[in-house]
Amino acid sequence: MSGNNTFNLDGKTIAFEDGDTIMDAALRAGEYIPHLCHNPEFSPHGSCRVCIVEANGRQVSACTQPAMVNMQVDNSSDEIMSDRRALLQMLFVEGNHVCPGCEKSGACQLQAVAYYCNMLSPHFTHFFPLRTVDASHADTAIDFNRCILCELCVRASRDVDHKNVFAIDGRGINSQLVINSPSGELGDSSFAATDKAAHVCPVGAILPKHTAYDKPIGERLYDKKPISIVGDVAAHEQDEER
Amino acid sequence: MSIEEFVSSITASANNQPGHLLQYLYEIQYQYSCIPQQAIQLLAEKLSLTESHIHGVIGFYSFLHDSPRGNYDILFSDSITDHMLGSRQLLEQLCSTLGVTPAIPREDGRVTVDTTSCTGICDQGPAMLVNGWTIAGLDQNRIEAIARLIESDTAVEQWPQEFFQVEDNIQRRDILLSDDSNNGDALRALIEQGDDAMLEQIESSGLRGRGGAGFKTGMKWRFCKQAEADQHYVVCNADEGEPGTFKDRVLLNAYADKVFEGMTLCAGIIGASKGYLYLRGEYRYLRTVLEQKLQQLRETGLLGNNILGKDGFDFDIEIHMGAGAYICGEESSLIESLEGKRGIPRKRPPFPVTHGYQNKPTVVNNVETFMSAALIAIHGADWFSSVGTEESSGTKLLSISGDCEKPGIYEYPFGVLIQDILKDCGAKNTQAVQIAGAAGFTIPAAEFERCVAFEDVSSGGSFMVFNQDRDLLDMVKNFAHFFVHESCGFCTPCRVGSSLMKDLVDKVHSGHAGQYDLEVMRKIGLLMRSSSHCGLGTTAPNPMLDTLDKFPQIYEKRLKHSGYEPAFDLDAALQDARDITGRDDAGAHIRTE
Per the CB < 8 Å rule, is A59 touching B531? Predict the structure, then answer.
C-alpha cells in the first residue's frame, strides 16, 4: 500500500513511510524546510518552530507532525515565510547575535536560515541579555550569547555521548544552557572535543578553539550557495574534521 | 536531624524513586527554606541523576530555591483581583514595616517578601502564602500583626488560627453541589452495571472536560481503555492555576470523597490500579485533609485492594504536590512534572491516553470532571444531560471575583447568560468580564447576552468582573507579566513573544507608545497564537488581541503619538548612572517633552 503513502508539498507529491514526519519525508525527497532545532540524527524536538508549515489549514511544526495521506502542506506561502522571519527575528533579539564580529559568520545555520527566509533586520527591540563566555576548556569554547536553546548539544551529550554534560536551567525567558560540572564550567566537565555534542551546534555557541579563521570569509559553508542546497551545519561537521 | 538524615528519610519513603524528585525537593524546600547544595549532591547520588538535572528542576519551579529565603517566605498573590483589593499597598506596608526590599531576603536572613501568581483565593483576597500556607482576607491590621509575629520570631504554627481560615463561599448550588449521595454509591453502581454499561453511561451523558478544553470524557476513557498496556493510570488535575479560578479548591475541601470516587470509577472502567492527584503547591493547606480522606476511604473498603469486596478491583491514589508552575495545568506538562521533571509540554501525538505517565495509557481529567462522572454513575446519563445545552450537558462551576457584591462559587447549568450571572453576583456598572482567566476572553457589555457553554464562551471556571471605574489596561498589563513569568521557555514564539509583548504593553501603559506599537503587538500575538508549541503559548496573547479589538480606547488614550515611537527612552537609559551617583535632581534627567 506504500504507493498511496503520499502527501502534497507546495504542489509536489512527496512519498512517505509509516512513522515519517513531514520533515522526514521532505528531507528524503530533497525538499528543504527551514529548521534549526531539528537534526535527523536525533528525535524531533519542535522547539524553534522555524519549520512551521501549514498542513491541512493548520500551522504545525514539520519536524514533529506525522505525515498523513493526501495532506496538503504549504511550505512557502507569504504568510508562512513571514511567520518564520518573525520567529528568526525573535531568536536574534533574544540573544546577542553580532554577525559581523562572529567567527561563525558564513558557516552559521541561524544566519543562513535568516538569509534564506529573507530576514533583513532584527525588527524587534533587542533584549541585550548579560551572558557569559566560557573558555575554560582546552579545545572548545562556549559563547552563551549565541545559544538559541535548540538543545541539540543536550540531546547529543545525553543520547550519543552518554555524558549529560549539558542541561537547561531556569524557566521562560530565563531559560539557559548550563554545564554539568562542579564549577559549572566546561573545562571542569567530562566534555571532549571529539564528543558528538561538539559537532551539532547550529550557531556559534559551541566553538572549536584555535581554528577560528582558518577558512576565510568568502569560502565558508554558505558563502556561495544557500542553505536549501548546502544543508545543515552538522551534516558538514564530519568533512570539516577531516 | 542532619541534612543527610533528612534527605535519606524522605527518599526512603518513596523507595528512592527518581520520579519522585519534585516531591523530595518540595519537602526539602519547606524544611530548609531552600534546597541546600549538600542536599542536591545527596539526591544526585541516591537517585543516579546529574546535579545539573536537579538544578534544572529547581530552576523551573517558582517555589523551589537554591538560596535561603529565610524563616518566613512571604508571597503575595499577584492576581489582578488581588491588586483590585489593594494587595500592592499591603505589600508595600509589610515591606516598609519589616525593612525589606521585595524579592530580596532581609539582611538578617529572617524574611523574604515577594509576589506569586494567583493563589486561588480571589473571592476573599488579598491573599498571601507564608511558607506555603494560605492566609486570606489581608488588611492593614492583619499585615501589622504579621509583621509583629515575624519580628518576634513566632513560628508560623503558632500564628492565630483565624489567619488561615479559607471559606468555601458557595453562593449557588445546582445538581453537583446539592449532592447528598453516600460514599461508594457510584462504585456500587459500577459493580452492578459493569464496566461497559457504565462507560456507555458516561459517553451518553455528554460529559466534557471541565478544565476548559471540553474534550468528551467518555471518549477519552474509551481510548485509554482500548490502549493495551500492563498498567494504566488515572490522574486528577488539581493544578488550578488559571488566574481567577478557585472552584477546585472548594470541591477538594468539601467534596473530596466524590472526586476520589470519580477517579476510582474511571480506574474501574479503564483498568488502572494507580492514580495521582496533582495538587498545586498553593493548596498546601489542603494536603493533610486530603490524605486523611484517602485513609478513611481505604479503611472503608473504597480504596485499596478488592474495592467493595470485588475481586481484583484494586486502586489507590497518591497525592503529588506541584511547586509553582502554571504550565503544569497542561496535561502533558503535568505528566512530566509527576515524573519529577521540568514541566515542559510533550510533543503530541502521541497523546496521554496511549502514552501518558511512565509512557502508559493515562486519563488526565479535571477535579470537577471526576466529580461529575461519579454523580452520573449514581443518577444516570439522562439525569445529567437533561441539564445544560445540547452540546454542553450538565452544569459548570464558576469562580466569581472582582467587582461584585457576592464573589464566590456559583454552579449554573451550561447555557446561562452572562448578564444573569452578573445580576446574581451583584455586579453593577460592569465594563467587562474576563472569562476563563488570563488565557480567556474579554467580554464587553455589548456581549453580555452571550452564554457560558462550550459552543459560545467556554470557561474552565474563572469569571472576573471589572466595573466602569477600572482601567482594563491594568488587567492587560497584569496578564502580560503573568505569561512572561509562566511561559516554560521551550518554544521561541512563547518564550520570546511573551516578553516582547510585555515590554510593548508596558510601553503603552507608561504612555510611551505609538500606533505602530499596537500593530507590532497584534503581529506578535497572532504569531504566538498560530505557531506556539502548546496551549499556553497559543492562548497567552488572547487578552491583548481581545482588548485591541474590543477595547481599542484603553490603548489609544495612552498613545504618545499616533505614529512611531522608539523603544529607547533617553531618560530611562540614565537610570544606572543616577543609581551609581546617587543623584536624582533635575539636572540628572533628560526632559524629552
Answer: yes
Arithmetic mean of pLDDT, A106-134: 96
Rounded to two decimals, what is the model's pTM? 0.95
Let me know: does B449 contact B418? Beta carbons within 8 Å: yes
The interface pTM score, or ipTM, of the predicted complex is 0.96
Nearest CA-CA partner of B569 in A89, A124, A125, A86: A125
Q: Provide the number of CB pairs (under 8 Å) joining chain A to chain B.
A: 112
Q: Which residues of B touch A149 (CB under 8 A)?
A: 489, 495
| Alpha carbons B497 and B530: distance in angstroms, whole number | 12
Helices B492-509, B515-531: axis angle to 10 degrees equals 160
Residue A196 belongs to what H/E stretch?
Answer: none
Inter-residue contact B371 to B377 (CB < 8 Å): no
How close B60 gets to chain A, by Cα (Å)? 5
Q: Give chain A's contact residues with B (Cβ, < 8 Å).
A: 44, 46-50, 52, 59, 61, 64, 66, 83, 86-87, 90-91, 93-94, 124-125, 127, 149, 164, 166-175, 178-180
Whether residues B56 and A178 touch (CB distance < 8 A) is answered with: yes
Tens digits of residue pLDDT in B403-454: 999 999 999 999 999 999 999 999 999 999 999 999 999 999 999 999 999 9
CB atoms within 10 A of CB B38: 13
In A, which residues are within 8 Å of B59 by CB distance?
A: 169-171, 174
The whole-number average pLDDT for the span B97-109 is 96
Cα separation of A72 and A237, whole Å?
A: 34
Q: What is the DSSP letter of B345?
A: P
